[in-house]
């Protein structure tokens, strides 16, 4: 079997176009234009690139760009005061604190100041709790992107054996929760898992969110499995995922490439969350 490629750029563009249409309809109905406040502290080049892409995507979708940039030597309290101010500002639908923040501040504590209805990254303890309880709320963007890719390709999640490798709060745990909510039988593997090959090769849907280049190879994948590679690893030969694409695409039925798989859908889900946040606040 040779896997069909899941094209994240196509799916991301589809979601972005749909959000732009929905934002225009929202504004045409007399509602306030949704606005996203990205908060960047310091001048880390990678973070600046990520924030730049998010801001451009916002403007293209008709969402107001309410970016905030603070110097890298700001105090924890200065950033906390800004987040509180954005939380109280009705023009701000969503707040995204770009992580990591400089060492003198506590990123988790700052993130927790974002009210759940403006938490477009879906990473606050309240949003994580709502997800765990299956209650409505804003979901983290990368895990939502994984589900969007599966749905776009009509992959049956209900009843499927899903294995998620990685248990981070950012990706592994929330994607496992979302698959569970869609009635998959979910296993979460991590660095202490015994027999990773055996666990992974049970999967109908295998999600890799590890951060180890090409960790998962042919021995980890059942013939016909759907493989979603969240990993982004910089190597001497360029960006690679957590999956050995060449070996695994000979076995899988569907597979995401890196780059061009999950990444482009992540930003699209941020736009979707910003509109959802605006709708939540209007209620
Ligand atoms: P993370 O916080 O470092 O978590 C990595 C997870 O992988 C941990 O749970 C760790 O287990 C597990 N792990 C590490 N080595 C392992 C091994 N040899 N076998 C099995 N499990 C192992 O990383 P993350 O934030 O979840 O990110 C994961 C990857 O996704 C990274 O490459 C990141 O760049 C990428 N990413 C991509 C996007 C996107 O938009 N495409 C978004 C976010 C992240 P323990 O818990 O036991 O340590």
Present the secondary structure layout:
Layout (H helix, E strand, L loop, with lengths): L3 E2 L2 H21 L6 E7 L3 H16 L3 E2 L2 E3 L5 H13 L5 E4 L9 H5 L13 H9 L7 H12 L8 E5 L6 H10 L3 E5 L6 H5 L4 E4 L17 E4 L3 E3 L2 E3 L4 H5 L4 E2 L6 H21 L1
Parallel strand pairs: 1-12, 2-3, 2-4, 2-5, 6-7, 6-8, 8-9, 9-12
Antiparallel strand pairs: 10-11
Helix pairs in contact: 1-10, 2-10, 6-7, 6-10
This protein binds NADP nicotinamide-adenine-dinucleotide phosphate.
Characterization of the model:
Helices cover 41% and strands 16% of the residues. α1 (8-28) packs parallel to α10 and α6 (141-152) packs across α7. The chain has helices at 8-28, 45-60, 76-88, 107-111, 125-133, 141-152, 172-181, 196-200, 245-249, 262-282, and strands at 4-5, 35-41, 64-65, 68-70, 94-97, 161-165, 185-189, 205-208, 226-229, 233-235, 238-240, 254-255. It is globular, with a radius of gyration of 19 Å. The mean pLDDT is 97. Strands 1-12-9-8-6-7 form a 6-stranded parallel β-sheet. It is α/β, with parallel strands linked by helices and 283 residues long. β6 (161-165), α7 and β7 form a beta-alpha-beta unit. NADP nicotinamide-adenine-dinucleotide phosphate binds next to α10.
What labels describe this entry?
single chain, 283 residues, alpha/beta, six-stranded parallel β-sheet, four-stranded parallel β-sheet, 10 helices, 41% helix, binds NADP nicotinamide-adenine-dinucleotide phosphate
């Amino acid at each position: 079997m040779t896997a069909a490629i899941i094209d994240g750029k196509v799916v991301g563009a589809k979601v972005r176009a749909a959000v732009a249409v929905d934002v225009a309809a929202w504004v045409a109905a007399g509602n306030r234009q949704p606005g996203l406040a990205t908060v960047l502290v310091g001048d880390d080049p990678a973070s600046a690139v990520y924030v730049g892409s998010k801001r451009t995507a916002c403007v293209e979708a008709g969402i107001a760009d309410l970016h905030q940039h603070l110097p890298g030597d700001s105090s924890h309290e200065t950033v906390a005061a800004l987040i509180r101010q954005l939380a109280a500002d009705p023009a701000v639908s969503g707040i995204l604190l770009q992580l990591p923040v400089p060492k003198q501040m506590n990123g988790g504590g700052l993130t927790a100041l974002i009210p759940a209805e403006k938490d477009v990254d879906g990473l606050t303890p309240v949003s994580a709790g709502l997800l765990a309880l299956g209650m409505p709320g804003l979901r983290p963007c990368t895990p939502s992107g994984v589900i969007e890719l599966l749905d776009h390709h009509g992959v049956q999640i209900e009843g499927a054996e899903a294995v998620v490798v990685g248990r981070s709060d950012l990706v592994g745990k929330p994607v496992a929760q979302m698959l569970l909510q869609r009635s998959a039988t979910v296993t979460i593997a991590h660095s202490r898992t015994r027999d990773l090959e055996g666990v992974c090769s049970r999967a109908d849907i295998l999600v890799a969110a590890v951060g180890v280049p090409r960790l998962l190879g042919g021995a980890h994948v059942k013939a016909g499995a759907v493989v979603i590679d969240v990993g982004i690893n910089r190597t001497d030969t360029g960006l690679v995922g957590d999956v050995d694409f060449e070996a695994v695409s000979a076995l899988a039925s569907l597979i995401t490439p890196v780059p061009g798989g999950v990444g482009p859908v992540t930003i699209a889900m941020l736009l979707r969350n910003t509109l959802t946040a605006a709708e939540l606040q209007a209620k």
